[in-house]
């Protein structure tokens, strides 16, 4: 009997010595000393006299300034760099609706350098039936254009161009698809940033569910979210919060809405869910979570401050505004 008691005491003392004290988690200290970037403003797309254009919102002056607006170079898509210091944008002249599948004409790729307030034309592309762009990582930007083959009607051409941060062309790839045999080209997407910058936390999946793992003590927090709906992960500068961009389960092709989940890594819980109708995209810049959504008939932009956990501003233009793009006409 005495031997059994001694064994139990030894087992419990051994187990307790192996357990890590949550108060010793280095993530707590790192968050207290985190450097949050001072963001002066951000760029977005808005309508100007019927022309999709580029605007800039200044936090200090609380003013919106028009940056670029040209009738023959309407903004198709704007992609701000992950650091918020530069951006690429795609323009077009018109949309040809006279054919069964509309074509985007007059496509151009530009890079804008805010420091010198100058745009640089990087490339011109032939008409495309699908056009999209994204940042592959912090240093590489990619544009994908799908177009009809000029010889075989059942073939599609996929042209994918990759640029470095400063606009230098790194690769120009062309791929031919037989839509009868292999179907339509799958839309590309950047890899998920599932590990935090200091590798303290991870977003992981088990079965069909998402979990947040603390790499200090190995604990996992299960979220009531499906892994197949996760589209993007962004880690806040404050080293305390992570943003999960989720596809709504009920969304369809006519209403591709999303939810934005704000999770507190130190409190180990979801602290905010953004569920406005028509959320399309978001930016996480410094202390601000910025996202667009559909207000009545037009898109607007909300600015949410992480430190105060409050919505501090809503941007609206007469014919709508959004972070990346507006419906083309």
Distance between the termini: 84 Å
Described by strand count, sense and barrel closure, the largest sheet is: 4 strands, antiparallel
Mean pLDDT: 91
User: Count the strands?
Assistant: 25
Q: Helical element count?
A: 2
Helix percent band: under 10%
Order of helices and strands: HHEEEEEEEEEEEEEEEEEEEEEEEEE
Radius of gyration: 24 Å
Percentage of β-strand residues? over 45%
Described by the principal axes of the CA atoms, the overall outline is globular
Strand order of the largest sheet: 3-2-1-25
Q: What would you call the structural class?
A: mainly beta
Would you give an account of this structure?
The protein is mostly beta strands. It has a domain at 72-191. It is built from two helices and 25 strands. It has helices at residues 2-18, 26-32, and strands at 41-48, 51-58, 63-68, 74-80, 87-92, 94-96, 103-105, 107-113, 118-125, 130-135, 140-148, 155-164, 169-178, 201-206, 209-214, 220-226, 230-235, 241-247, 258-264, 269-274, 282-285, 288-295, 298-305, 310-315, 321-322. It has a four-stranded antiparallel beta sheet with strand order 3-2-1-25, with no helix packed on it. Strands 4-5-8-9 form a four-stranded antiparallel beta sheet, with no helix packed on it. A hairpin with a 2-residue loop joins strand 22 and strand 23. The protein is globular, with a radius of gyration of 24 Å.
Descriptive keywords:
single chain; 329 residues; mainly beta; 2 helices; 25 strands
Tell me the layout of helices and strands.
Layout: H1 2-18, H2 26-32, E1 41-48, E2 51-58, E3 63-68, E4 74-80, E5 87-92, E6 94-96, E7 103-105, E8 107-113, E9 118-125, E10 130-135, E11 140-148, E12 155-164, E13 169-178, E14 201-206, E15 209-214, E16 220-226, E17 230-235, E18 241-247, E19 258-264, E20 269-274, E21 282-285, E22 288-295, E23 298-305, E24 310-315, E25 321-322
Antiparallel strand pairs: 1-2, 1-25, 2-3, 4-5, 5-8, 6-7, 8-9, 10-11, 11-12, 12-13, 14-15, 15-16, 17-18, 18-19, 19-20, 21-22, 22-23, 23-24
């Amino acid at each position: 009997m005495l031997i059994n008691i001694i064994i139990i005491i030894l087992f419990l003392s051994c187990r307790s010595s192996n357990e890590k004290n949550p108060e010793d988690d280095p993530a707590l200290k790192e968050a207290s000393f985190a450097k949050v970037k001072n963001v002066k403003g951000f760029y977005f797309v808005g309508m100007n006299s019927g022309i999709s254009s580029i605007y800039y919102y200044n936090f200090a002056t609380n003013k919106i300034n028009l940056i670029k607006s040209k009738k023959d170079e309407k903004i198709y898509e704007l992609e701000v760099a992950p650091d918020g210091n530069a951006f690429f944008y795609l323009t077009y002249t018109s949309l040809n609706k006279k054919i069964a599948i509309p074509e985007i004409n007059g496509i151009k790729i530009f890079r804008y350098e805010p420091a010198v307030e100058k745009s640089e034309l990087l490339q011109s592309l032939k008409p495309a039936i699908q056009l999209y762009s994204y940042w592959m990582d912090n240093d590489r930007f990619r544009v994908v254009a799908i177009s009809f083959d000029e010889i075989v009607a059942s073939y599609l051409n996929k042209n994918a161009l990759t640029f470095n941060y400063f606009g230098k062309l790194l690769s120009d790839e062309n791929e031919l698809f037989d839509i009868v045999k292999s179907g339509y080209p799958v839309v590309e997407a950047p890899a998920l940033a599932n590990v935090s910058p200091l590798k303290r936390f991870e977003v992981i999946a088990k079965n069909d569910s998402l979990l947040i793992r603390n790499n200090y003590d190995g604990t996992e927090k299960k979220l009531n979210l499906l892994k197949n709906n996760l589209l993007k992960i962004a880690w806040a500068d404050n080293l305390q919060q992570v943003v999960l961009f989720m596809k709504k389960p009920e969304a369809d092709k006519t209403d591709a809405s999303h939810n934005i989940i704000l999770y507190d890594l130190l409190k180990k819980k979801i602290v905010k869910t953004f569920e406005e109708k028509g959320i399309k995209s978001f930016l996480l810049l410094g202390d601000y979570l910025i996202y667009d959504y559909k207000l009545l008939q037009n898109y607007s932009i909300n600015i949410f401050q992480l430190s105060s956990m409050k919505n501090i501003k809503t941007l609206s233009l007469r014919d709508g505004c959004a972070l990346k793009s507006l419906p083309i006409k």
